[in-house]
Amino acid sequence: MNKKSDRPILVYRFSSLGDIAMTVPVLRSFFNSYPNQKIVFVSRPYVSPLFEEFDNLEFIPIDLNNNYKGLGGLFSLFSKLYGKRVRAVVDLHGVLRTKILNILFRLTFTKVKSIDKGRAERKKLIRKKNKIFKPLTQVHYKYSDVFRGIGFPVDLSNHEYPIKPFLHQESIEQEILSKNPNKKIIGIAPFAAHQGKNYPLDLMQKVIAYLQKDYIIYLFGGGNDNLKQLNIWENVYDNVIHLSNKLNLEQQINIINYLDLMISMDSANGHLAANYNIPVLTLWGMTHPFCGFNPFDQPQENSITIDRNHYPYIPTSIFGNKIPKGYENAFRTIDPKVVIEKALDILSKTTLRHS
Fold first, then answer.
1. Residue 2: which pLDDT band, with cuts at 50, 70 and 90?
2. The 3-state secondary structure of the chain, one letter per residue
3. Would you state the CATH architecture of domain 172-347?
4. Is residue 229 predicted with pLDDT exceeding 80?
5. pTM of the model
6. In the CATH scheme, what is the code of domain 4-158?
């Protein structure tokens, strides 16, 4: 049997792409401090491209809806993971499923640390009466705290961005980028998981219509219903290209590395861009940067929020899934001109990334 110091650390984070993407800067900082320590990372299959940059990380894709469904599935998953002979468990999710896994590992005398989501502080921030409006700890730092709890302090100031991926001349990514080599590129991800985080499409169309005159616009994201809208914009405007139906996640990440700006809701694409040192302009609806989900290492002035003097209940929820009565049109108070002007300001301070 290997010495305990040679055994890997088990990390799991199931959930949305954005939540999982926020682990990447933490893992980079971890490996900068502990380059020889191996990690076994367990998550959903489609997020595997996020972790290909790490040599000392083994990614285990699991299908929680089929292969490991229900209590029996959790026991099967535990058996699979226990076979990795890990030295400690880092639970970055903190839900019932992972809590059961944590109990099973503790029964084998494995050290386990789970994320503290700070639910009490969250309730104080989102409640209507006696709201305590102050910033919560950023999720990236909460993730770091879990590693500290197993004896591996992670210093995010130790973070280093990776170099841009080399794109082969015959790759579809290079083909897309080479069409407009002398224009800056703006990525726009106009959709989020909940309606309360979606900037109204007619206002976003005004942003796109203006910016595409002088810049190339790449559109990201969207489920089946939203793809129709992205296709419409691509067909209407000369300098707008919809990428979600052309590229897989790995290819989209390669393209994101070469953007000059990402305009995103409080959603996954903002986190993906921030992970590669791309300026991110984030639009916040029913949520707020104080909820702790600001994209990594992005300045506060890159966040545009609804005026709380007129809508004091904001943030109405942590995840943007609650729109109080009278707040249905709150997001419309952010004028497209404000978004455009801020985008132009950010772009004026950047150099062309894909020339």
1. low
2. CCCHHHCCEEEECCCCHHHHHCHHHHHHHHHHHCCCCCEEEEECHHHHHHHCCCCCEEEEECCCCCCCCHHHHHHHHHHHHHCCCCCEEEECCCCHHHHHHHHHHHHCCCEEEECCCCHHHHHHHHCCCCCCCCCCCCHHHHHHHHHHHCCCCCCHHHCCCCCCCCCCCCCHHHHHHCCCCCCCEEEEECCCCCHHHCCCHHHHHHHHHHHCCCCEEEECCCCHHHHHHHHHHHHHCCCEEECCCCCCHHHHHHHHCCCCEEEEECCHHHHHHHCCCCCEEEEECCCCHHHCCCCCCCCHHHEEECCCCCCCCCCCCCCCCCCCCCCCCHHHHCCHHHHHHHHHHHHCCCCCCCC
3. 3-Layer(aba) Sandwich (3.40)
4. yes
5. 0.94
6. 3.40.50.2000
